[in-house]
Amino acid sequence: MKSVPRFVSLLLLLALMFSLGPGSTSTVRAAAAPCYWAQFIADVTIPDGTNFAPGATFKKTWRLKNIGTCAWSNTDVSLMFDSGERMGAPASVALPITVNPGQTVDITVDMTAPSTAGHYFGYWKFKSAQGSVFGIGSTANKSFWVEIRVGASSGAGYDFTASAASATWSSGAGALTFPGTDGSASGFGISQANPKLESGVTSAQAGLLFAPNNVTNGYVQASYPAFRVQTGDRFQATIGCESGATNCYVSYSLNYQIGTGPIKTFWTFREKHEGWTYNVNLKLDSLANQDVKFILVINAAGSPTGDRALWVNPIIARAGGTPPTAPPTVTGTPPTATPTKTGTVQPNACDRAQFIADVTVPDGQTFAPGINFSKTWRLKMLVLVHGQTTALSLTRVKRWVATIHISFQIQLRPVKQLTLPFHN
Fold this sequence. Notes:
The protein has one helix at residues 3-20; strands spanning 38-43, 50-52, 57-66, 77-84, 92-94, 104-112, 118-128, 133-134, 144-150, 156-159, 168-171, 174-176, 188-192, 207-211, 219-223, 227-228, 234-241, 249-258, 264-272, 278-283, 291-300, 309-317, 352-358, 377-382, 396-404, 410-419. The chain is mostly beta strands and 424 residues long. It has 3 domains: 1-29 and 366-424, no CATH class; 38-150, Sandwich (Immunoglobulin-like); 156-317, Jelly Rolls. The chain is globular, with a radius of gyration of 26 Å.
């Protein structure tokens, strides 16, 4: 007689499991996305920690995506200062265009570095004409920010653009003069006061345009006079192909030579015209207290046709000896490195990747039980340091699906192995 209740209980339990399973027609639905919701995509200009002299002016550009359900009309929604250091910016800035759901926008704000040395953060959100304040993150209320350091002296220990005429220029075709002739088959280098990058952004900072000589795997380089590196110095630049150079596919390299020693590669990066630019921020401490000749190099990745590569504001940044201070604790605290789990082997220093964007499934998105989804990240490979190359560890990505167990605990299990194609 006791077997009947057990049998009925088992049937009820199985029915409950099927009602919650992947094939269920349960009335549970994913939570609706907020009307106003933003996703941070990239710092187009001024990477976090950029050094400036007191009172220096600059343009900060963020790239953001509308992941809500409502359009951001440029007559209704504006950028607004939220907290931290305003850096001379207006309290609000109008959007340049109307941004529909799914679209991205580049928003630029004119700013001025504070007059006192220190470490500064400025936090920003959006605001609608109806008073709705929104931002990024899973709850659409987190700030995005600008972070700079202000030194007691000039932030540029060395300016490669301003010093370009003192460099020795050459290509695979031989010695070159500076400035070169735009379009020369021998390759060239020229300065540009306001270079326009492949992202469509025109920089307020000057830069150098490099083009290799017109042969397969051609190159062009500028070798600068020796410079005394100090502890804390950093090489900084924004790199990318020139706007309109859709066939551009090159390798950037920062080489160096100490005395009459061999030329070595400190850093390299492969770039293809895809609408993105990248911020370089390299610690030079390993070269401190030495007289170093730096060499900026562009190599064609195969055909040189259409290769027009920009170094925007390439400098050796020097903070003037001002020690960094801890960032303020405010809404929208900057992200911290993911802690290493117990038992995990630390990656080789050469194995580094840069997070670019959540292409699908922004943080905090809600799903009904059993819903399958594909998660896509956009990552950039940063794997060459001091001339040592290494294979990226990201060779496989697991696709996960939520499953319901009798205990009603959601667990994750791999259901398919995918191989990541390499994209620059």
